[in-house]
Amino acid sequence: MTTVLDKIVAVKRQEVAQARAERPLGELRAALVDAPPVRDYLAPLSRERPDPSQAGGGGPIKLIAEVKKASPSAGLIRADFDAVEIAQTYAACGASCLSVLTDEPHFQGSLDYLKAVRAAVDLPVLRKDFLIDEHQVVEARVAGADAVLLIAECLTPAELIDLHALATDLGLTVLVELYEPANLPAVLACNPKLVGVNNRDLRTMTVDREHCIRLRQQVPPEVVFVGESGVKTHADAQRLRAAGIDAMLVGESLMRQADLPLAVKSLLGKD
């Protein structure tokens, strides 16, 4: 059976072919000299670790706040969508890093949103997309991304290692995401510094908020660990923190709130 993820990746392959035809990789690489300097995405997400052998650490859980207009599972999430205004609100209310959706067909995102956010906000920015080809990674760096997402379910183990190495060589932080526990060996083979476990099964779009908690102990404690999807309240955030999770990536539950500043502060326990 063809899954939602299968359909998304098939569209991505078409997008990459078109992008390569419009702007060959060599031409894109030449533009790297004009790319803005990379900002550290990892440090803001790292909690102090009194005991390096233990996952998690002191201090509150960190927030990767996502700029997200729509999704395949939810449709349009925020009608009054202004990427820069949203990012500025996140920054003012205590987010540690940003994630910007750049997938257009399924999330109504845009690389232009990332460029605008990068220019307007000091927080480091991740390109959130389904990256399957080196062209997309170089494109992210040229656009001003500080980090990129690589999803294990979209790539072979060899592709994951190669794209991780390329992104690292370009100075980008890589958030390596997985859902399936069976993909953990391939993820760890990259020697990642930042790993995220998605609580949403991208094949069925169902969410299990305990999924990332169950997998935390299978990832080395020194790896900065992100819980993704299904986090809605400060109590949810505290549960992740208690499980040794360093950061949470939250988009939809924030984007649905009319009072975005209050929603961010409430999630972080600052209200």
From TrEMBL:
InterPro entries: Aldolase_TIM (IPR013785), Indole-3-glycerol_P_synth (IPR045186), Indole-3-glycerol_P_synth_dom (IPR013798), Indole-3-GlycerolPSynthase_CS (IPR001468), RibuloseP-bd_barrel (IPR011060). GO terms for molecular function: indole-3-glycerol-phosphate synthase activity; phosphoribosylanthranilate isomerase activity. Keywords: Amino-acid biosynthesis, Aromatic amino acid biosynthesis, Decarboxylase, Lyase, Tryptophan biosynthesis. The keyword Iron does not apply. It catalyses: 1-(2-carboxyphenylamino)-1-deoxy-D-ribulose 5-phosphate + H(+) = (1S,2R)-1-C-(indol-3-yl)glycerol 3-phosphate + CO2 + H2O. Pfam families: IGPS. Pathway: Amino-acid biosynthesis; L-tryptophan biosynthesis; L-tryptophan from chorismate: step 4/5. Its EC number is 4.1.1.48. It comes from the Bacteria. Residues 5-267 form the Indole-3-glycerol phosphate synthase domain. GO terms for biological process: L-tryptophan biosynthetic process. NCBIfam families: PRK00278.2-4 (NF001377). Belongs to the TrpC family. This is Indole-3-glycerol phosphate synthase. It comes from Botrimarina mediterranea. The gene is trpC.
